[in-house]
Amino acid sequence: MNTIVIYKSKYGATETYAKWIAEDLGCEAVKADDIKKKDLLKYDLIVYGGGIHAGGIIGFDLIKKAYRKLADKKIIVFAVGMNPMSEDIIKELKDINLNKKTKDLRIFYLVGAFDPSILKGFDAWLINRIKGMIKRIPVVNRTDSENENLNRLNYGGNWIDRDSILPIVEEAKIYINDNK
Ligand SMILES: Cc1cc2nc3c(=O)[nH]c(=O)nc-3n(C[C@H](O)[C@H](O)[C@H](O)COP(=O)(O)O)c2cc1C
């Protein structure tokens, strides 16, 4: 079984998770920018992880564009964001990132880290826009999750948790065992 973990991480949380998953699966973790579409064909099991920016899983186009050629592969996707896990998050991730072809992919969600003090340029601008969207909702009408989101956007934090990769590693190991 040829397995690989591919990731795209801007601030390091996704990279940390990708390396832990690769360690548990005994395979390599490779940056999405360092792999070509045709190289994907060498693998039977591909775990792809990307940070979430405005709902999109960064770098996921690599998998989407090669998807037809990967029909006989097992693909596991994880996305790393700053908000607490909820059913809405998975639904939103699927709505934004999957299309007709990829709609049956399962997306795992992991909580990463966020430091507003290091943001520059486009990222700082985008975060300000997201904050502005929440701030425009009258305080009395804001949901708990909107309040929590605003709090995390303002103050940041580190929610990286090694145990949260266990369901991903388990799904991969089941596939590996079933296809020995
Ligand atoms: C420009 C920008 C947009 C973001 N948008 C979202 C978002 O829509 N949803 C979310 O949960 N987290 C969002 N985040 C938080 C990141 O996904 C989170 O910090 C994650 O740990 C990033 O992974 P990385 O450290 O591998 O880059 C955003 C962060 C930045 C900088």
Task: Give the strand tally.
Answer: 8
Measured as a percent range, the helix fraction is 25-40%
What is the C-level CATH assignment of the largest domain?
Alpha Beta
- Major β-sheet annotation: 6 strands, mixed
CATH superfamily of the largest domain: Flavodoxin domain
Mean pLDDT level: 97
Helix count, per DSSP? 6
The class by helix and strand makeup works out as alpha/beta
Low-confidence stretches: none
Percentage of residues in strands: 15-25%
Task: Give the CATH topology of the largest domain.
Answer: Rossmann fold
Shape: elongated
- What Rg do the Cα atoms give? 17 Å
Instruction: Give the total of domains.
Output: 2
Rounded to the nearest angstrom, the distance between the terminal CA atoms is: 7 Å
The molecules bound to the chains, other than polymers, are: flavin mononucleotide
Return the CATH architecture of the largest domain.
3-Layer(aba) Sandwich
Assembly state (oligomeric): single chain
H and E string = EHEEEHEHEEHHEH
Strand and helix map with partners:
Blueprint: E1 3-8, H1 13-25, E2 28-31, E3 45-53, E4 56-57, H2 61-66, E5 74-81, H3 87-97, E6 107-111, E7 113-114, H4 121-135, H5 144-155, E8 157-158, H6 166-178
Parallel strand pairs: 1-2, 1-3, 3-5, 5-6
Antiparallel strand pairs: 3-4, 7-8
Helix pairs in contact: 4-5
